[in-house]
Model the fold of this input.
Amino acid sequence: MATHDGLWWQRGIFYQVYPRSFQDTNADGVGDLNGVRQRLPYLGELGVDAIWLSPIFPSPMADFGYDICDYKGIDPLFGTMADFDALIAEVHGRGLKLILDLVPNHTSEQHPWFVESRSSRDNPKRDWYLWRDPKPDGSPPTNWLSEFGGSAWQHDATTGQYYYHAFLREQPDLNWRNPAVRRAIYEVMRFWLRRGVDGFRVDVIWHLIKDREFRDNPPNPGYSEGQPPHQRVLPLYTTDQSEVHEVIAEMRRVIDEFDQRVLIGEIYLPTERLVAYYGKDLLGAHLPFNFTLLSAPWSAREIEKIIAEYEQALPSGAWPNWVLGNHDRPRIASRVGMDQARIAAMLLLSLRGTPTLYYGDEIGMQQVTIAPGEVRDPFERNVPGLGVGRDGCRTPMQWDATPSAGFSTVPPWLPLAPDSMHENVRNLAADPTSILSLYKRLIELRKRSPALTWGSFELIAAKHDLLVYRRRAADSSLLIALNLGSEPAALASDAIDLQGSILLSTFLDRDHEALSGSLDLRGNEGVISEIADRGG
Ligand code: GLC
Done:
């Protein structure tokens, strides 16, 4: 089997930085671009290859930057264009890549395009957004619901029409059926690609096109109280429309005007729909984000099923990817517990396909409880009490034991985790058995192992709490055995010859241990071993 070097985004490990919360350098309690630059040595030591920055563009911050009023600028909160240029130069100087967030589905209501669009019915930008007449009784044109609560239609008194917003009313949706909108956003992409960015993570890419006929969404028979209210209807006519693939193919063509850039799509869809986003002839997104682990019930059999379904559904030649956390979902360490967070790390970094880490997960950051008076997230403010709040996974990075955890010199914009005095980079880096040390070892192992980077993937039948698989490249065969339970478990398998040696345990204390026919795992232990290969 020829080893291929592949492309950097296949080989690499991605790391999401939520810029507000990574490192503050100007004492305003909010992280900034110079902060990211200052922490590049840390990311280098960690061993990640590409940094994805959540939005840094001018914004009224109704949705913390996902409401953009200038696609080609930098919000002063984060710095200046000169800071950005310095950051990208240093990122590249260190051999790393930089990915920006592209938010093409909606703008801020303060974007000049929308200001024009709403000014009159015959404004040339009117059709850049989705405007509709009220129903005869004055009510919204359809039953479409905003993801952040309430109708997705906002009445605008100036012209007596409603505009559509899939998220906040401060985030009007662009009309992606209008070619001028497409051209404008493609120009935005070129602007940043020319500046050297290595690609985009495209926000809510599966939302871009809505039903041409504006049909009502059907009720969701599975809805129950306690779920976010927008789930009362099924988004049949508002997301995942077939025409979206034409748009994505166009975006991809823009990406391909430049050398070696990557297109990543944010898509929350079941696996069988998700894989369509690789596009016809794989000319869609390079990496449609695979979020299946974000909501996976934490059991060996469930995860085995998820992996098998995903591997099976991938179109031929499509490159897989896996995500454990992001700025919208509860922290993995809180979801599965600290013991299993190590298993999750080993899983993420030993599966086939590009892994994306969320900042702070490498130090086991927890979901922080936010007091009602301190809630900043508009989703939680609009839909309180259902546990949808996203502040808890966006708290400041815990660098050291100083009062603001080394994140800032002033109180940060969101509270620090109560454990930041102990659970911080400085302490954990000094502890060779910490989760941070585990992440570093895993990343290092993945990067020097063709089997982990490129190798084939094969599930091995296992029982109870064990999840077992093999990764194989030309000259090596690795067995990954993960114990998702807290009881000890022994692996015995007819399918594999357990001869070889342990490369890494999640407890970091079994390096080089020989295997001679069996493998015993402690509770909550995962092990990567090099094993003899009988071929097959
Ligand atoms: C995406 C972002 C999320 C944002 C939403 C609306 O899902 O990840 O943070 O609120 O889009 O832009």
Remarks:
- The mean pLDDT is 97.
- The radius of gyration is 24 Å.
- Residues 73 and 440 are 35 Å apart (CA to CA).
- DSSP finds 15 helices and 19 strands in the chain.
